[in-house]
Amino acid sequence: MLTEQQIHHFNTFGFIILRQVFTQDELETINQEVIQRMEAAYQHAPFDGTQRHWVPMFEPETPFFTGLMEDPRFCETAEQLYGEDVIGIACDANRYVGDTKWHPDTKSAHQYGIKFAFYLEPVGAETGALRVIPGSHKQPFHAELRQAREESRLDLAEVPAFVCQSEPGDVVGFDLRLWHASLGGSSDRRMCTLVYYNNPKTEEEDRVTREQARLNADTSIKFGRPPEPIHPPSWVANPHKNPKRQHWINRMRELEFFE
User: Fold this and answer.
1) What is the reported pLDDT for 129?
2) Structural domains in the chain plus CATH codes
3) Long-range Cβ contacts of 140-147 (<8 Å, 24+ apart)
4) Model confidence, pTM
């Protein structure tokens, strides 16, 4: 659980760094599951360092990773920041290639939540660490940055930013509206994420969340894989009858995430 000081930092700057959340044994398990899932999902196009690979981690073959969504270290932190009715949306693994340009993880300021990101190798300022623009989750700063990007005025290296240097085991949590990027990444930068959405309460929040659900549905095609649902039937079936997961599933079904 976050302290009051940590909550204030997150609300003010839009991010927080949590040190050594995972044990060494947990990291070994995560690495094994990520490698296994990546290799299985990309048998048709093995990783060669030229194209980013992405996979959701909701499969029965990745039990530890799949269970992280319900892990109190993450879901209770999300609930502290966005309310007890947050929705656990996604967990995934990535193999990044090169730089990542400035962007937020939402199309609208009315669709928000938190992403937890953790790297499987040490990363720093020149080796692909997440860099963020503090406070850019708030208006009007957020909208001003969007306009600057549209006008090609957001130079990756020149924008003042905070670099979230991290070691394996560290986790960075940030608001989906926060502008972020990375510089100098290797040809195989492995990063994993867990995502929780705010439960929409207004008509506009509901509309843009449904729109985001439709965009999410095409993710596997975007990353060079055949169409497949982010949430496989095995996860939606909730075999262990976890009440928190069932709450998420019920709300996601209402918001048409499984259409």
Assistant:
1) 96
2) 4-254 (2.60.120.620)
3) 142/104, 142/109, 142/177, 142/179, 143/109, 145/102, 145/179, 146/104
4) 0.96
